[in-house]
Amino acid sequence: MDRFRLGLVGIGKIARDQHLPAVASNDRFTLAAIASRHGQVDGVPNYLDTAAMIAGTALDAVSFCTPPEGRYELARIAIEAGKHVMLEKPPAATLSEIEALADFARARNVTLFTSWHSREAAGVGPARNWLSRREIKAVRIHWREDIRRWHPGQEWILAAGGFGVFDPGINALSIATAILPAPLFVEAATMDVPAGRAGPLAAELQLRCGGARGHASFDFLQTGPQTWDIEVDTDAGTLRLSLGGSVLQLPGEAECTEPDQEYPRLYARFAELLATGGSDVDLRPMRLVADAFLLAERREIEAFAF
Ligand code: NAP
């Protein structure tokens, strides 16, 4: 079977750390070209922008690793040209943008895949299966990391459309919406926004899931041990997912973990969608973030510098 010829856009941290190795190890794809203003990749044609890449190299699909702000315009160019599209999380800067892209992809009969890499962490599937048979009593999310360590110099992340602490926090919400057996709602929120920035450095969300209460605590200033944990109290005890979903602890059982396969699984899923002609556009994590921004009490905190 012929390989899908892939173009990769936005050669930054995640493209280098994850997309390039995952594409190289997947025999359904050939990296055919890249588009980036500063980043370069050896061995394939390098272009400065998406339109030039699509005009210059024959492609089946384009995968976008740029920041969410501005991705709508880029993805539109690819869909307009009849290319299948995979988007990094969060899929766009606003819900209206991603809904319009989904409509456009449908109209052009191309695949659109809004990827949520954290859902591919080893513990997420087993957690979903276990929770599907339980009554949920409470949900606790602690997602605390050091912005300077993981996002050095990424000014876009605290600009409008950059999501602030919801850039990592949306990963927790992507897992929660995948594993919980009932819809999740935001009931109240607070956000701490540094002076002169648009995106919050910290946020607290009060959540509801069926009859259960929940809480999410997102912090971008955690030094020392980093925390990406979700706990769910149920009628059969407490489920713990830690390290971003990669370690699962069920009541009375040994901890369960596997090597990280998030991005290989994402590209396997994209290949499956391309082969079957389907799309996968799940906007629930994005909707919860939008709801948090709608409800939030915003507090200004002292200015932040990377
Ligand atoms: P990054 O290191 O800043 O890379 C993004 C790349 O996109 C840049 O190198 C830049 O390349 C290009 N770009 C295009 N327009 C841009 C703009 N207006 N501002 C800044 N860069 C722009 O960011 P990243 O960490 O790879 O994150 C990219 C996406 O992946 C985000 O949606 C993020 O949430 C997601 N993600 C990141 C991680 C992570 O650990 N970092 C993990 C999972 C997912 P050129 O200048 O060469 O065009």
Automatic annotation (TrEMBL):
Keywords: Oxidoreductase. The keyword Transport does not apply. Gene3D superfamilies: Dihydrodipicolinate Reductase, domain 2 (3.30.360.10), NAD(P)-binding Rossmann-like Domain (3.40.50.720). InterPro entries: Gfo/Idh/MocA-like_OxRdtase_N (IPR000683), Gfo/Idh/MocA_oxidrdct_glycsds (IPR050463), NAD(P)-bd_dom_sf (IPR036291). Residues 4-113 form the Gfo/Idh/MocA-like oxidoreductase N-terminal domain. GO terms for molecular function: galactose 1-dehydrogenase activity; L-arabinose 1-dehydrogenase (NADP+) activity; nucleotide binding. PANTHER family: BCDNA.GH03377, DEHYDROGENASE. This is D-galactose 1-dehydrogenase/L-arabinose 1-dehydrogenase.
